[in-house]
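Notes from hallway chat w/ T.B., transcribed later so I don't forget. T.B. wanted the structure written out for a chain they're using in a teaching module, and asked if we could keep both sequence and structure tokens in one place. Agreed to drop them here.
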Amino acid sequence: MKTKHLAIAALLLALFTTAAEAQLLKRTIYKTDRFDFGVGGTIEITGAPMGSIRVEGWANREVQLEAEIEIQAPTEADLDRLEKVTGFVLQESLGRTGITSVGPHDKKSVRKLDKKFPKALYGMPVRINYVVRVPKFSDILINGGKGALHISGIDGMLRVNYIESDAKIDLVGGGIQATLGAGTLDITIPSRSWRGRFADVSVASGTIDLKLPAGLNAQFDGSILRTGKIENGYEGFKPRNRNGQFTERSIAATAGSGTIPLKFTVGDGTLMIKQFDPSR
């Protein structure tokens, strides 16, 4: 009987939550910024709990920032209040700029902007989607919540931490250290002349789809920590040890002269390794 009552209560709560969300009004706003930024600097992006981040390298010595912000609240007056405290703030110093998302998920920042902000509006649904264009030769640090991620055209150090993402990263040079809690990561090294120093990439639960060029010079380590398998379709690997063997759980290989360390780890899921096809 108690189990039946708990099931009914859970159903009523779910229905109430769904109805409450359906009654929320939505508003989309846009905020932009553009500022000078020299090559070789560091840009740190802290995303919202929900939202995508797209980073593109370009030849300009400046940063262009575009944010599409979706807010939700019960009334138009509440939306007006949320709009004033939701968006991003910049922390600028010599050679380094931080782009930090602010909104009802961050009480400390909201209190600085609106000391009388209603308690009922904390935790209202917010989504911020970023497009950030930066000098090609920059170091990028990204901390994200749940949402898509795309990085391209960056010849610098990449450090990425995301809770959950459908991510795509096209490497040019530098190095990468990336961790995804869950989701998929499509990562490409398009050229054998990749000017990279290292790669250390892990996905706790999900899939890594790795594309490597023919003729790559690398020391490669791929592993599955718990459940899942490695699907190896790359022809350039040789066992690092003469008597070593590749398995569905582990690959320790040398490619070419073996100069660049590459490490790819999946906790639960699939590590797919393919040969990059520039015609696709």
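Follow-up for T.B.: The longest strand covers residues 195-212. Might be a good example for the class.
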